[in-house]
Amino acid sequence: MKEVVDKVNQVGKFFTNVDKVHVMYNRIANAQLKRPAVTRFATNFEMLQSLKTGRNPLEFCVCNAAWVKKLVRGEQVAAFNAVTHIIKDTNGFWKDVDKVMAVMEPVVKLLRLVDGPRATMSKVYFGMGVVVAKMRTLECLSEVEKADVEKNLMYRWTFMTSELHCAAAFLDPEYKTHTLRDTEIREGFNIWLYSWAPSELLQNDISKQVDIWVQGLGTLGTQNARDQASTKTPALWWKAFGGSLDLLQLQAIKLLGQASSSAACERNWSLHQLIYGQRCTKFMPERLSKLVCKN
């Protein structure tokens, strides 16, 4: 995948930076090729998508009679030849682009869900399951490639997931039928439950409310509640139908109302270091906390 992304970047850089080549491409194509950017989300995927869309104009350019080495300066001839070979698909380049995009597309879709503005913590667990299942059915990948891709995905999943994701998944009304038999989700939910529930209430009141949720009794099992389980956000659903579970409802709304993120917590510490390092140590704790949280 890295080799393909590097080749795509090479093509995009050449067609963007060489003026005569850039003008030739713009005369043929209706859209410009995108280049990778550090701050742009899913930058490599967007670059690949842009190149795939512009495949016909690119091939038209390199097959044009005007596509000669005189278009570029002497030091750019090597890049001219390399880009020409890439676009002419001498080594199955476009097939590799399709393969990489097939792998990246469901992953990018999940990342957009995770890092989106909505409270989607309860959707992450099932979204990852969909991605893994999709990878196993890709015909463009060999069995060895599927194993490598799944290994990388599960490594990232282990790094990113937590008991909060399991607890949120357990309390999401949309996926209720999928969570009752999942031991990992139930274990994560129990850990979350013991983290906040007072011991004197856990054995009786809260346990009874959890059983009511699992069995779907009262207002939780009405037809209206089932119909809105997939249309309402989980937090609003609990606010509307979980009134009889007063102890569990409040905590469920708090949990299901949280946004998720695929970024590592270490980024917050590095930001903290930039704000409160050796060169800048005069902030009061309250001011420092506001700066870190806002960023």
Automatic annotation (TrEMBL):
GO terms for molecular function: protein dimerization activity. It comes from Chara braunii. InterPro entries: HATC_C_dom (IPR008906), RNaseH-like_sf (IPR012337). It comes from the Eukaryota. SUPFAM superfamilies: Ribonuclease H-like (SSF53098). This is HAT C-terminal dimerisation domain-containing protein. Residues 233-293 form the HAT C-terminal dimerisation domain.
